[in-house]
Write a structure and sequence with these properties.
This protein has 315 residues and is an alpha/beta fold. It is 32% helix and 24% strand. It has nine helices and 13 strands. Helix 3 crosses helix 4. Bound molecules: acetyl coenzyme *A.
């Protein structure tokens, strides 16, 4: 397939590091050097499904495609207010599409997994036009009393429209179960038969383990694809990496021995918006004209699971 349109939508509320230090024992002097984050956009009166639909409409406009021409909508989401119906079904109704819909929960690597699903359906001959929307509100998963976690995240939605083509050159997906390193637990409705102990636990993270996994998985996925395609890191025009932490991005950059300008970032102003991070960055680069038609780009993301994925494609 090939990507022919992108879109994004972010909440209007900006929360700076200084604003966090008003109610948390933290500071810009701690957060910025360790993460690269200056501020993040946080959901206040918006609904995530509205941001998701807005990103989808922008991507369709950018692609010059009508919603009724879509054959499939894939939505990547970890948490939103609806348990059911799926967010993809809510988006379908909001944009006036009629095609089948699928939600996936692949944490921060959702965009890579969604691209893989779209490509597989396209190769099977069952779809021609696919909308991918990654919409996330991780700020509703964290405790805002836990300075270890809540300072890292922001909310938003990113979308891409794909159609027939052979621009996707390779996809590598990985998973390595680690349920004690990055997780959130919520209780379900009680029944008369539940005898086990249950509790709500906000997002918990072993930061240094996540950091090490992220660098290892991302460099491994990208290296695997480069080797498979017989390419050198120099042949990639831009690397669009999951925007979790600028130090993770710098470690991957050093491993690949590539210059700064090949690694656009927005973690400074968005924080980590989970699976929405890569498509939001892709949309910003697309609209700013940073990506040149015909150049080869690499996308890579990693997250809870642990799972990770990378894609090499022609832009
Ligand atoms: N403000 C001030 N102090 C803090 C804060 C904060 N926000 N958070 C932690 N600290 C303190 C800790 O309590 C600790 O204090 P102590 O030494 O007295 O115990 C001290 O700072 C150092 O903590 P470390 O964990 O050693 O700090 P580190 O340098 O490892 O940085 C960080 C922590 C930024 C979380 C880092 O480990 C990291 O970036 N990990 C990756 C996290 C990530 O990217 N997660 C998401 C990826 S997956 C996904 O996207 C879902």
């Amino acid at each position: 397939m090939k990507i022919i349109g992108t879109g994004s939508a972010i909440p209007k509320k900006i929360v700076t590091n200084d604003m966090l230090s008003e109610f948390l024992d933290t500071s810009d002097a701690w957060i910025y050097p360790r993460t690269g984050i200056k501020y993040r956009h946080v959901i206040s009166d918006e609904k995530l499904e509205d941001l998701a639909a807005e990103a989808a409409v922008k991507a369709l406009e950018n692609a010059g495609m009508k919603a009724e021409d879509l054959d499939f909508i894939i939505c990547s989401n970890v948490v939103n207010e609806y348990v059911t119906p799926s967010l993809s079904c809510i988006i379908q109704g909001a944009i006036g599409a009629t095609c089948p819909c699928l939600d996936i929960n692949c944490a921060c690597a959702g965009f890579m997994y969604a691209l893989d699903i779209a490509e597989a359906h396209y190769k099977a001959g069952s779809v021609k036009n696919v909308l991918i929307v990654c919409a996330e509100e991780p700020t509703r998963m964290t405790s805002w009393k836990d300075r270890n976690v809540c300072v890292l995240f922001g909310d938003g939605a990113g979308a891409a429209v794909l159609t027939e083509g052979d621009n996707i050159k390779g996809i590598k997906l990985s998973a390595a179960s680690a349920t004690d390193k990055l997780y959130q637990i919520r209780t379900l409705e009680p029944t008369p038969y539940i005898t086990k102990e249950e509790q709500n636990i906000s997002l918990q993270m072993r930061g240094q383990d996540v950091f090490k996994f992220a660098v290892k998985a991302s460099t491994g996925d990208i290296r695997y694809l480069l080797d498979k395609l017989g390419m050198k890191p120099d042949e990639i025009g831009h690397y669009l990496l999951h925007q979790a932490n600028v130090r993770i991005i710098n470690s991957i950059k050093e491993f690949l021995e590539q210059p700064d300008e090949k690694f656009p970032t927005n973690v400074e102003t968005h924080g980590n918006s989970s699976s929405a991070s890569c498509p939001i960055l892709l949309d910003e680069c697309n609209r700013k004209g940073i990506l040149k038609r015909g150049e080869t780009i690499a996308l890579s993301a990693f997250g809870a699971g642990f799972i990770s994925g990378a894609v090499i494609m022609e832009w």
